[in-house]
């Protein structure tokens, strides 16, 4: 949770007015944090300085060398590299107005890397001390000021001479310093452990006057990009006005600042010795919680890159804070658990959050507290659904513990369960009656109504008797979603909507009425029912996923759609155009973890799983907490500048060559030329797309996908320019891009004079060869004609024999292939039902077991047994029993996806292997199959014959070390189902 600390003074104007929510500085909650350590390629975990050069590369100073980062790779420069450093311990970095990078080290040496890649070095010269240079800054005279650790100040003059200025007596420069800044008047400000020191325009180094009001303690000076000099001292923030510091804000509890940064919003970031990271701005004083960014000691350096991300170098690694569109609440923010299922906002603006670990309530100030609900075992119930009735009471449906009602105002809790007539099992969805007189519940056994404290089970014909996954009360109708489509309850009866006839939709997860249209979220996209007609917007119309859970329009014309693979956003008008057939495709933006969601798996078949709150924000329940987005901030993230493309290296026949600079490279011909390049973006570096154009050879741009190098072999002589452009996924290509010009020189035989002489010699040789060949041809032609005549007869006879033998072999091979195919089928197929047999099932189980263990994807196994099958054989004959088995196999195959494996294990025993399927999804599959058995009115052509099955369902778990153990758990659950009365499904 972000901590907001008050201040003794009103907030200063640290940033411009926020204006609209789209331009306002977001709270720290809206920043995602990424971390790198030596495990990710850094040579050392302590980063003393961070800099970004104009082309976009990031540079890090460590104790084990200088590091260049392009978003994908860390390139380390040390004493053993080319070019090499004078010492591995890098102390400070500084980018001057020319874009050159200055590097200092722990022995007082200074290096400079120019924009064209040239390196220059200035080894320490006496009397400059041989110690760490902690900071570097350039003044208007071109002097590079150097802060020597524990020794004082010096500078490197424009002509490359070191000048050292020992501190005068009484000035605390003989101890460790904190930081140094040079202001617009070329005054040098040095923060020490014993106050602030300044070298004035008169060249004299002295303590600041006592009437500045700064204590003799740790002081940190910082010059912001706008030229303002900030000072942090003794838990307070000062701003230099003229020649005197002005107190801006007290910072209670913040001690020992070790880094400072002003970002593009005008907010100030403070790194500390051991308290982590703070930000001072429009939101007050914010602290990045340790749960999200462990302090790990001192924060040594801060930088805002060209894309607005904040980089923090600490003693324990490198951090990057990037602003995200979504923010999330998890267990670390106060939720009882991370698995959230249902959301509800009450009339007081409070957010109720139901999940696997109970019910929580978020107050309007953001505080989260659990709601004290207890089941009969004294534990918090698992909440599946929430609803609010006309009286303002909040209802909570549970997983096996009935329904709780929390009275408005008093928070008094009452409970309804089986003793009150409520069917056992889950209450996945609920809906308050449109007239406000009661609450509808969706259970495993159909719909139930609670009114005036009494549980009522409607007896209207046509209502579903199985699992209900969605409910919506609108006008005079109750819309009911199941795993077998939609039912609509009205006074005159029940209407069924056949979704499967349009795109194959079956499972329904949500309803939303907009005007006179009802929108339906299903396992085949969105359906719209209007004026008695169905329309569908699914995968074929541009939806990136099949299964969607909840559709929520906001007040700006956006539609937010939750799914198993993140949140989708589109435009309401565009959605209507596709549903009406005016447009063939829907443009959809897809958001997931990289956009700030703690988990991209939203939840469905519970509800409401997503909502729009009164403040206009969209909220969604996920498997990793609750995520939210303010649509007003969407414009900030929709368009990003394309990443600048840069060339990182050129090699000829594998040998690096110098390519930077204004001079055109001259290359010998016939060589292999390799060019490495990258797009310098640090947000989605691995998803950047590239294209190249070799001017002088290619006719236009050639797209390279994610390829980060291009190779040319044997280029013909001529002048060339290689252009490189980069783009974010779905974004625009960078305009100018990178370019490298070079010339391929002709080889010896490619020179014109050599080629002319070679042509003359070739013509003479051809004349001589021609005359020789004519003579030889005349002398040998007669002999060859005789030999041809003699051998033609033999060859014709041999060809006929070979043709006959080849035809005989082809016929034999075809017969062998047909026999092999038949044997393979017999070995893996059940002859009665056509399903895979036990052998094929065992092979498939072993294969999918190994795949699930490698990938971590869920795997479910269902063992089925036809109830009382012997009675079918004894009563109706074995031929009827065989027909029943065939019809069971047909239903099992029809209910399976392409990735599933149905099989007959023997007799009346069957199995179903479900890949990439969670336990809840597998239970829905079993319930759908059970409904198909119940709905079949005749078996084997016999009207009085009813067939049911018992099943055991098991999810691959950590204890299943072998496929046999998984099968044994499913088989054990099967026998439990039999022993409990059959016609049921038990979990193993």
TrEMBL record:
Task: Outline the extent of the GGDEF domain.
Answer: 857-988
What Pfam families does its record include?
GGDEF, Reg_prop, Y_Y_Y
List the EC numbers from the record: 2.7.7.65
Supply the InterPro entries for this chain.
Diguanylate_Cyclase (IPR050469), GGDEF_dom (IPR000160), Ig-like_fold (IPR013783), Nucleotide_cyclase (IPR029787), Reg_prop (IPR011110), Rev_trsase/Diguanyl_cyclase (IPR043128), WD40/YVTN_repeat-like_dom_sf (IPR015943), Y_Y_Y (IPR011123)
Signal peptide positions (record): 1-15
Q: What's a BP term from Gene Ontology annotated to this protein?
A: negative regulation of bacterial-type flagellum-dependent cell motility
Species source reads Stenotrophomonas daejeonensis
Stretches that traverse the bilayer: 754-773
Q: Which PROSITE patterns match?
A: GGDEF (PS50887)
Which UniProt keywords are given for this protein, alphabetically ordered?
A: Coiled coil, Kinase, Membrane, Signal, Transferase, Transmembrane, Transmembrane helix
Cofactor(s) needed, names only, are:
Mg(2+)
Q: Does the keyword Endoplasmic reticulum apply?
A: no
Q: Which SMART domains match?
A: GGDEF
Q: What is this protein called?
A: diguanylate cyclase
Entry GO CC: plasma membrane
